[in-house]
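Sample entry (544 residues):
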Amino acid sequence: MKIKLIALLTLAFLSCKAQQSVKKETESSPKLVVGIIVDQMRYDYLTRFKNKFGSAGFNRLINDGFNCKNHHFNYVPTYTGPGHASVFTGTSPMNHGIISNYWYDKFTDKTVYCASDTLVNAVGVMTTKEKMSPRRLKTTTVADQLRLHTQDKAKVIGISLKDRGAILPAGHSANAAYWFRGKKEGKFITSTYYLEKLPKWVEVFNAKTHSYLKSWNTYYPIESYQESGVDTNHYEGAFKGMITATFPYNLKKLSSKNGGYDILKATPFGNELVTDFAIAAINNEELGVDSVTDFLTVSYSSTDYVGHQFGVNSVEVEDTYIRLDKDLEKLFTYLDNNVGKDAYTIFLTADHGAVNVPNYLKSKNIPAGYFDTKAFKSKVEKVLESKYKITELVKNISSNQIFLNRNLIRNHNLNLAEVQQFLVEEIVMFKHIDKAFSAYTLTSGQFINGVGALVQNGFHQKHSGDVVFVLEPAVVSYSETGSTHGSSFSYDTHVPLLFYGSGIKKGATVLKTEVIDIAPTISSLLGISFPNGCTGQPLDVVLK
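Predicted structure, serialized as tokens:
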């Protein structure tokens, strides 16, 4: 009898401790997680523009949060679609399947888009386009796992100017994802994957987007922008209707020749638009108001459009980040006042970096150049025809991948692996080709580190091509003005990673972290399962 009593008391004690543990975990979980991606943000923008930032935006995250200073993407190509997918799934394209923004589909013989879905329709605008959903994403996101963990009680919303920037982070089970339709409409829209009609608050917000078409001049006197090159130069792309890319920009006047409301995307006011819409979403969707953690994903796309048009060293890029810093301050202040200073958690990172304009680098005697993909394809076709006496062996060349005509190879009794390897050995001798890998090599062995490992992590057996090639540093297939991205080099892989808020330590590290580590870190903070394809590791140095 005494033994039974002791056993019962022990069980009661353990049950009490377990309940206390659950209660403690619930109480310590943030009411809201905000996952922020700044499209095309190099790590050095944090340091280069630091003195131009205020104390309550980027610097608040750096000084009061945790700064991972040596954060990198662990795959190529470094594009928007794969970047957003990898941040939130905790794995690389070899598992989640988003290998690029667009890729050649070997099964349909067509190019497909990472967020396209013919089974849905646009909501909020009359168009046959904007048929978007996350169905091409093969794994769950951390937001999906939160929905599963809470029996759908957690609310998840994704927001961006770009459809892929809103859709891929929010995952498969999100309550909604909203992106910006420019053109003549100037509206945030969604698709029938999520909703049958726009909520009233979205319609109210859309009625005032015209106010963002205003004059863009530098936030501070232009002569103080010493962190950038001169305003008028040969390395930037001008808006249509302007001879040079020079401040100021009258956006309302320029809009008619630059895609209507689409002009906002290539200005800092696109980020302002997203910030205000995110605040409206938090307010109207009542995010972070109860004990169940909600999740908001916010992707700032204008930084990418501005970078592509004006380049890494432009005054326009600097001014865009100065203004984004003010937008972040506005968002954080709203969270302080409406969710609670210690009741939310933020992480901020990027989907890729960017290269300095190659022509600018060449002017500084730094090796750089431009790659002609059309001429390259012609040369590849001639090499194959000379070797095998067969034409049309190349189906497609895109995202630094060569897709061969496998039916033709099979019909002529050729060995696919041998054709792939022959092509590797030939093209690596071409100008500007640094390295090349065959699909056979990438699927039959494992690279532990180096460029080979990055290529392998970005290679999906069903979606990727027969040969993957790597261009030399600072060599791009792009226009001769503006910046681009996509490579395995540090200017594209090294991006910020900042954590802040509930459950986050103050500090910094120079130890290497990888994009796939973000989702399991947030999962660990929330006490939920990792995304189902997760290959990253939680960053325990970040968590309290």
